[in-house]
Amino acid sequence: MGRGAKSVLWDGKGWDPGRLVWTAAASFKAIAGLARARILLHRVSPRDIERLNQASAECLGEDPDLVARIGWLIPRIARRLPWRADCLVQALAAQDWLRAKGIATCIVIGVDKPSEGGFGAHAWLKHGDDIVIGGEIERYAVLFDGAQKRE
Question: The pTM is what?
Answer without folding.
Answer: 0.83
